[in-house]
Amino acid sequence: MIPSQLARPYTRFVKIEKNSKRPVEQNWQSTANYAHDDPALQEWMKRGGNVGFLTSSRGIIAIDCDTLEAEKRILELLPPSFTIKSATKGLSHVYLDTDEPFNAKIKDEQGNTLVDVQGPGKQILIPPSRINDQPYTISRKIEIMHVSSHELKSLLNKAFGKQIQKNKKNEPRPLIYESRLIRRVKEKIKISDLLIPLGIDVHKPRTQCPFHPSQSGACLAIDHEKQIWHCFNCQRGGDVITLYKYIRGELK
Ligand SMILES: [Zn+2]
């Protein structure tokens, strides 16, 4: 089973080859990733396949410790948060919820990686994955803590006493990263914000649909709590984003 701390709305998972860290599907960063309860993913795990968490989905990143010394410093530095122990090295992956997910590597003077911050466009193995019969296990069974990316960067800088090297290549933006943006848009813009400028009375339980004339003026139902709408006349409906697309003429 995928740990409950990660099995949440908008988190995404990747099919990984059995006994390996290699993703099975090519487009795992964009389209070939799954919700935790997707039957295809469930079936994959049932057949013994490994599973990776798509880091930065839902704003969750993983701090991957590569040495015992780095792990000690990380565990002292960060607030207690959900942590997984890796199968191969037995070192910690600390999961954090952050506002602006990022990738970073902290290296020693010889260029060996001490800490790898896994953010957009990465995946990291989680239970029930296994490598050489060694399981990934939960070492801190607590909730994922929120730390702002600004605070996290300054904590890492303080602990490791050097600038964090940002990964050079442009960070890819997986689809799910956009889903998080969409979630933010939905928090800010309500259905009534789009309908009021069109002269629609949004306070009536049933009101005029903006897309056609109607005799009753009562074909449009809006659920303000769920932020969904439906017209019983033209059968258009959806959330605030589909409404926007209909108003803009992108949907007919
Ligand atoms: Zn209508």
Oligomer: single chain
Low-confidence spans: pLDDT under 50, at least 5 residues?
A: 170-178
- Helix content percent band: 10-25%
State the separation between the terminal residues, measured CA to CA: 42 Å
Number of helices: 6
- Rg over CA atoms, rounded to whole Å, is 23 Å
Tally of individual domains:
2
Taking all residues together, what is the mean pLDDT?
88
Question: Any idea of the CATH topology of the largest domain?
Answer: Prim-pol fold
Structural account:
Strands 3, 4, 5, 6, 7, 11, 12 and 13 form an eight-stranded mixed β-sheet that branches. The chain has a four-stranded antiparallel β-sheet with strand order 14-15-16-17, covered by helices on one side. A three-stranded antiparallel β-sheet has the order 1-2-8, covered by helices on one side. The chain has two domains: 13-178, Bifunctional DNA primase/polymerase domain (Prim-pol fold); 189-248, DNA Primase, Chain A (Alpha-Beta Complex). Mean pLDDT is 88; it is low at 170-178. The protein has six helices and 17 strands. It is α+β, with helices and mostly antiparallel strands and 252 residues long. Zinc ion binds at residues 209, 211-212, 219, 231, 233-234, 236. Zinc ion binds next to loops.
